[in-house]
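ingest -> validate -> predict -> emit
validate: passed (alphabet ok, no gaps, 325 aa)
predict: started
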Amino acid sequence: MADTFNYRIDHHGSLVRPTDLDATGADQAVQDAVVFQRKLRSTVVTDGDFPREDFRSAVLDGVSGLRRTDETGPEGLVRWVAEALPKANGPLVADWATRLTELTVIAPKVSLPSPAYLAATTFQPGLGAGSARELGEALAEIIATEIALLVSKGVRLIQLNNPLLLDADPGALSYEDALAVDALAVGLDERPEGVRIGVCPGWTAPAEVDRARLDKLYAGIPADRWILPLLDGSEAELDLIRALPEDRDVCLGVVDATVPDLEDLDTVLARIDAVGELKDLEDAALSPSRGFADVASRPFLTTEEQRKKLVLVETLARYVWGNEF
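emit:
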């Protein structure tokens, strides 16, 4: 995939929000975020998820049939339940994506929750859909439609996040159903030149990797790009990369977005060299391990700590590929 270099310096999408951000100031905040990313020489640019409450909100806020509850999970994510099969109330994030294309020539990127993840975490027996699979398929149709719209508006990198795919328990969906549902969302009929649809299957590697299960994952979801953790160079992390088919790109999460301490440059480069023994680095990119603020009100780092982490990603990329992005 010869044009991968356009997206060498990547990030998951969510950035630390300004402390005084409100709905009326979102547009200016996004403009400022674009300038911030340009100065960091990122090869993609996002709206930082500034207009949204958390990394799921692009879908949850744009469809009917799902209800917000008063319950909150351990990561600060408010629980939603599906009371009916969801229907889109119009485009989900395409308007913000169009704004990105107006603000910069850097490749715009959009991150969305995967339909299988949403179905697994919102399905409740006896409400709405007859099964989690049925709910997932309805969500997949909505997200697939949004992906086609985003591509038509100039978005060139789209990432679906399903943090459950590397877990032993994928929630209310069976593993096979989760793969089938997410496959429906990424199955864009045509990929214009430079377009990549990626999947992040989890923020961290499992303690041990089941190779048969992993082969099913990569075969089951026809994503162009896989965003995989590389935080300690463990055998499990390398197994995730070792099993990746040769025709898929990999984006390596090489810096921890949840702790302020900066990684040692030589240590990370050694981990990337180990990946180079398994995968052609011409089909690779670098990024932080996850979003910096998956929940707007609970950022992992300060804005300055975030900046240093992104600078480190850019520095690492230049060590690996020089200045040829």
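Residues 1-5 have pLDDT under 50 and may be disordered.
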